[in-house]
Amino acid sequence: MNFFKFFRDRRESRRLSKILLLALVLTYALRPNATQCEVTQKLQYDGFGSQFQNIISTAVFAHVTGRVFCMTPIHEMEHNYDHRKGFINEVNALMNMHTGTKRARDKAQVLGFKKDWLDEFLLSPENNTEAQEVLATLRRRFLKDKSRARRIPVAVHVRRLNAHDTRETVSYDHTVCKVMRTVARNHSKSTFHIFSQGPSSEFKMYHNDSRIILRLNEPLNVTFTEMVLANVLISATSSLSYAAALISEGQVWAPEPFWHTYPSHWNTYAVSDTINGSKCLT
User: Fold this and answer.
1) Contact assessment for residue 26 and residue 215, using Cβ atoms and an 8 Å cutoff
2) Number of C-beta neighbours around residue 156 at 10 A
3) Average of pLDDT values for 8-32?
4) pLDDT tens-place string over residues 238-248
5) Measured by CB atoms within 10 angstroms of the end CB, which terminus of the chain is less buried, N or C?
6) How does pLDDT run across 75-117, given as a tens digit for each residue?
7) CA dihedral sign, ordered 139, 56, 256, 241
8) What pLDDT sits at residue 154?
9) Cα gap 269→138, rounded to integer Å
10) CB atoms within 10 A of CB 238
11) CB-CB contact of 243 with 53 (8 Å)
12) What angle do CA 261, 38, 21 make, to 5 degrees?
């Protein structure tokens, strides 16, 4: 054995190890600190869809303006129908957003509501590409801890009146079935999962069809995650499915008119279009 060569090789190996270690240190030193937080969202107290939509909008705004966003955890929210103590913690865990530390958030600038800003931003085709890049990042973060969630063919949000919101923005079944038929023409073997609230007796148009699966009164984390993951999402006049559609990579069918702007690649359907008869897909 050549001992001089042996020790020379060992010295070279150590030198390379030190260089690699220094490179790693510099790499992590140049990355934003996990606790860094320059801006955060203004808190709301209404439903999940509305609050997450504002969080998403604020995150896009922060990216466009070159600042680090962290989410202030939600403290209060409507639609906790079972009055469960762990509901708020479950909601914050569901979003899985970067929150930084409380100390960092306390020093961060609280931005005003950014939903209207995102509406204006999406009006420009040039901005849509940049927005989609940010939304894709948010999607990846949202899905990071949801590897076991299932991907369904078609998710359909049917909005019904509830105890916290009595606005006349319900989904009319004859309109929903109209767009479902449109989707079915290109997805003839797909099943349609109807996400909504209320007793099954209020959804008679969707009965007796093996292609339609009623998913009523299910937990928020299941409903929202499967909307995001669906190959096709038919949204309602609702912030819940609108927020899901924003971070979806599937095909989206959204109602018109609606009070927020849609990304340019979404499909739309008119809420005035209906079908005749009492069968949804036939």
Assistant:
1) no
2) 28
3) 49
4) 999 999 999 99
5) N
6) 999 878 778 889 999 999 999 999 999 999 999 999 999 999 9
7) positive
8) 98
9) 26
10) 23
11) yes
12) 115
